[in-house]
Amino acid sequence: MVTNQMTGDASVAREFNDATKLQYINLSNKPPLYKIYPGLRAIPLPDVGGTSNLEMSTLQAIRGGDQDAGRGSAVTSETLAELLYHAAAVIRRRTLRDGEVHYRAAASAGALYPTEVYVVCGDLEGLRAGVYHFNPLDFTLARLRNGDLRRWVAAAAQDHAAYPATLVFTTVFWRSAWKYRERGYRYCYWDLGTIAANLAAAGNAAGTQVGLKFGFVDRSLTGFFGIDGIEEAPSLVATLGNPDGTLNSGSGDVPGMLPQESNELAAGALEYPLSRRVHLASWLQTGDDVAAWNAPSDAGRSSDKDELDGTGEGFRPLRAGPDGSFDGDLDLASRPAQSLGECIRSRGSTRRFATEPIQWEDFRSIVEAAGNPINAPHLANGLSPYLSIYLIVNAVDGLAPGAYYYNRFYNGLRLLKAGDFRETAGHLGFEQALPADAAAVAFITADLPLIEREFGTRGYRMAQTVAGIIGGRIYLATHALGLGATGLTFFDDAVVEFFGPHATGQEAVFVVPMGVPHQDNRVRPFRSRLAVSLDARARGAGQD
After folding, report:
1. How many CA atoms within 13 Å lie on the side-chain side of 302?
2. Boundaries of every domain in the chain
3. Beta strands 440-446 and 387-393, pairing class
4. Sign of CA dihedral 171, 127, 103, 435
5. 9 vs 43 pLDDT, higher one
6. How many Å apart are CA 306 and CA 371, to the nearest integer?
7. Rounded to 5 degrees, what are φ and ψ at 103?
8. Does residue 255 have a cis peptide bond before it, meaning omega lies within 30 degrees of 0?
9. What is the pTM of this model?
């Protein structure tokens, strides 16, 4: 007779066996890509898809343009539509053999789009005060709550200025975890960052101030939007426009249950305990926590390495010509480029690069745009000392191939080591041809020990999101210049080791190759000699 203990052992064995099965992708539990509220009326937004008013050059829009131009213009429903469309909407559709594919305004790892967008506004021209959910597929809003409830979001973010509208971004973690498992938690914030990059640039082009807030009381927003904070959680707050007064602080209490439930977003979800643990550890619990988060940092605005290695031999200012001559008056955003609206509507990820070089003038404009400050606490004067941009240059006219560090303090490139590192780039980029073929590859790193000391576990979310913003800027800048880019995963420690000792203490966060798109936009098989050697040694080669 089989005992209970033996039956229990058999159950554990089956559980283990199920957990260790190999399969390509389980389509049976793929989460829905869109959140909908079936019982609520879809409110159409103004149609801005055919033609766009965002005519500012993409490089100028990323950079910020004239900070005073148009900042007093009112936020209307049309303004809101412009920003939502160019940040998160479906901009193209294509019918393939297996069905229709939707392309959105910003890049997403695996095209899984884990980010949802909510709008909280006072009365706008063309839209009454309320709380709304944005549907990117049909470009509509669903009204979740009536009335001017901006004070609840203001209380959560500890900012009681009366902004005309605020966007609250949430993350549905299962959408990325379904394919990328524990590592998908990182990808969720990369995707949030690419959307934020589009939003900030669109705000600049539209003359609408956009401010990003990483700090808020998580639990307040979960109740406000009727989400649980685990399967779907608030990730970023973005204010739109200039405040026209101060809001009543309010009690912070959630104003009742939502009138309508959405479709199920996490059916069939598997639990990834480490992702959940780091997320819960990152919550800000009180208004005092948020105030401490937003307080000025003691870390300063530049790192010692920026101030010490920004001159002399091996340093190339971005404001230098192909011959190396310096021109301090050069405007790096003046390079002819597509308008932001046109760029976003036609943008896509590159699947294969040609090995031809790109021009120095294009490359330096891309790097400078990527490294610009972000309108958020702790980042308004620059990314340093928290995040850094390292580069492998394979083929840039007028710049020697090699490994470089972008020094924002002196706005130039420090040569770390000269040489041909195409194969190395391919290996670091998770053994893919894209970084090996690209003209240059940006490796975005973060000083996670410093970030954790300054901001606690919440800083990890910020670091991943900001890396996504940098990557999103590279996407926009390269495409606007007739080039291409794509985001990649990577071998974490190998990246830091390669750029060492300069990068010692950093952690790799995101990788973005850039260059000339190949006429055949399909992935090329790749295998580096380093990977072949590592595999041989793993099989026992070279042992005594």
Report:
1. 14
2. 39-257+270-294, 304-529
3. antiparallel
4. negative
5. 43
6. 13
7. -110, 130
8. no
9. 0.94
Contact 78, 52 (CB under 8 A): no
Residue 450, amino acid: L
Helix (H, G, I), strand (E, B) or coil at 380: coil
Bridge partners of 534? none
Radius of gyration of the chain (CA): 24
What confidence category does residue 461 fall into, taking pLDDT thresholds of 50, 70 and 90? Answer: very high
Contact present, 286 and 176 (Cβ < 8 Å):
no
Residue that the structure tokens 């920003």 belong to: 83
Reduce the DSSP state of residue 219 to 3 states and report it.
Answer: helix
Same fold, 39-257+270-294 and 304-529: yes
- CB proximity list for 493: less than 8 A, separation 6 or greater: 508
Helix, strand, coil in percent for the chain, rounding step 5:
35, 20, 45
Give the per-residue pLDDT at 330: 87
What digits encode the pLDDT tens for the residues 98-118?
A: 788 899 999 999 999 999 999
CA 379 to CA 494: how far, in whole Å?
A: 27
Query: What is each CA distance from 29 to 244, 266, 419, in whole angstroms?
Result: 47, 9, 47
> In terms of Cα–Cα distance, which of 441, 415, 439, 416 is closest to 428?
441
What are 118's strand-pairing partners?
133, 168
Of the chain, the percentage scoring pLDDT greater than 90 comes to 71
Q: Tokens 């702790």 sit at which residue?
A: 378
Mean of per-residue pLDDT scores for the chain: 90
Q: Which helix (H) or strand (E) holds 495?
A: helix 492-498
- By CB atoms closer than 10 A (0-12, 13-18, 19+), residue 142 is buried
- The tokens of 276 are what? 């959940």
Tokens of 433: 């041809």
Lookup result for tokens 């999101």: 465
The first and second tokens of residue 29, run together, are 């539990």
DSSP states along 99-166: EEEEEESS--GGG---EEEEEEES-BTTB-SEEEEEETTTTEEEEEEES--HHHHHHHHT--B--SEE
For residue 378, how many other CB atoms are within 10 A of its CB? 24
> Which stretches does DSSP call E strand in 205-311?
210-213, 232-240
CB 211 within 8 A of CB 199: no
pLDDT tens digits, one per residue of 493-537: 999 999 999 999 999 999 999 999 999 988 899 999 999 998 888
- Please give the Cα distance from 359 to 399 (Å, whole number): 9
Rounded to 10 degrees, the C-alpha dihedral 99/103/108/109 comes to 30
| CATH superfamily placement of domain 304-529 | NADH Oxidase (3.40.109.10)
> Which residue type is seen at 41?
R
Q: Which CATH number fits domain 39-257+270-294: 2.120.10.30, 1.10.3470.10, 3.40.109.10, 3.40.190.10?
A: 3.40.109.10
